[in-house]
Amino acid sequence: MIVCKFGGSSVADAAQIKKVKAILESDPERTIAVVSAPGKRSSDDEKITDMLYKCNSLVQKGQTCRLVFAEIAKRFVEIARNLKLDAEAVSEKLDEIRYQLDAGKGADFAASRGEYLSAWIISQYLGWEFIDSADVIVINQDSTVNDVTYQRVRERLEPGKKYVIPGFYGETEQGVLKTFTRGGSDITGAIIARSVGASLYENWTDVSGIYRADPRVVKYAEAIPELSYKEVRELSDVGASVFHEEAIAPIYASGIPINIKNTNRPEDPGTMIVPESSREGAAGVSVRTSLSRLQVRKLMMFKKHGMRHALLTMLHVFGIRPCYSLYGIDTIVWFYESRMASDSVTAAMCERLKKEFSLDECKADHGHAILGIVGGNMDIEGGPCVKALQALCKAGIDVTSVNAGASDASVLIGIWEKDAKAALKAVYDAVFRSDK
Ligand code: ASP
Q1: Is the Cα dihedral 344, 347, 351, 353 positive or negative?
Q2: How many domains would you assign to the chain?
Q3: Which residue's alpha carbon is nearest to atom 5 within ligand 1?
Q4: How far is 122 from 25, CA to CA, in rounded Å?
């Protein structure tokens, strides 16, 4: 049995949904489709999910979301009409959703309706049964999957039947609708694949796999034929956006292979993600941008038991959850997403940290990026790190930090965001093209 997840671009309009049908019908093993909300039809288009979030913020501010909602409704009705489905039935569902948005059901409910309607329409088009994810997927407060989910899915799905399931959302144990983080339909696909013991989890998108570097920046970058679970998590963490980094967790123990495929070029092999990869050395390089850096210093800081934990707790209070850290004898450096705190919040936080922990220094600055080179056994090979640092030095790009050895599958190099594209190209050429 193959579980297929189709991303936003694969269900962006009726023409794309027709390709989805052809893909599903070309292999009888493909019996479960997990779908996203319609994504962008062109680069200047808007994702339905973004529009739904917009609607909710308008309602929260006491304003009407009439205009934005009309655009959403237009897109769904157009999809239904072009697929020759009952557009009236879709309009009725839209009216009900609009009513609930106005009643202030919140951001998660609003965002989830894109997947809900998308799956419902596609189920009608395919003649497959629709299952509401809220009935089977239980999400914990920290957005992880509650273990009862797998049993619930198994009990709900009958062998031999075909289903369409919306991605991205479920319910808390208290019965409140909750979404995963953005791009979370990948997680739903993984949950379903594990629950039914799928032989393969196909993840259909608009590129032919995961590339060694972002092909918009490095035009000649190649697709990676095979990656391990560990490598794909590392690569997603440093900004490669093809597969959600949390989607490995549900299937980690079951070892189900994942195939990243292109809905527009189904014949391309794509990238296989497997528990262990036989390759040694670098697989890909990526840069995560829009980061800020917090530096704290205090003489003999680590003599005080629990200091790091206490500082982190305070950071959380101010809405900052660091994604990378470095420790010195008397210093800690944390990188975090700049959007997490404004300048005034960071200033207030530094004041408080200094006072409460008698810090010698606490300062934040912006415009940072982390470049990650990911691969198998990077620690023993040693080559990619040296090659990358030499290439950055030769290109005149400043390095602000190096973290090698924390994981045997990655080397993380701090750079300034303004250098991100030049750094990606320089490192790609040095690591993957040095023999060409
Ligand atoms: N529609 C959601 C998003 O845009 C979830 C997903 O597509 O996976 O983030």
Answers
A1: positive
A2: 2
A3: 183
A4: 13
Pocket of ligand 1 (CB under 6 A): 7-8, 36-37, 47, 49, 114, 167-168, 182-185
- Give the domain CATH number at 409: 3.30.2130.10
Cα–Cα distance for residue pair 394/375, rounded to 1 Å: 23
Q: For 358-371, what is the mean pLDDT?
A: 97
Ligand 1 atom showing the smallest separation from residue 184 Cα: 8
- Verdict on whether the full-model pTM lies above 0.85: yes
Atom number in ligand 1 closest to CA 115: 1
Nearest CA residue ID for atom 2, ligand 1: 183
Q: What is the pLDDT of residue 217?
A: 96
SS3 for 334-352, per residue?
A: EEEEHHHCCHHHHHHHHHH
Atom number in ligand 1 closest to CA 37: 1
Q: Is residue 218 part of a domain?
A: no
Ligand 1 atom at shortest distance from the alpha carbon of 180: 5
Coil, strand or helix at 232: helix
User: In which domain, by residue range, is 81 found?
Assistant: 2-206
The C-alpha atoms of residue 228 and residue 232 are separated, in whole angstroms, by 6
For residue 114, the CA-to-ligand 1 centroid distance in Å is 9
Q: What is the distance, to the nearest Å, from the Cα of residue 198 to the centroid of all Cα atoms in its chain?
A: 22
pLDDT at 381 over 60: no
184 alpha carbon – ligand 1 mean position (Å) = 6
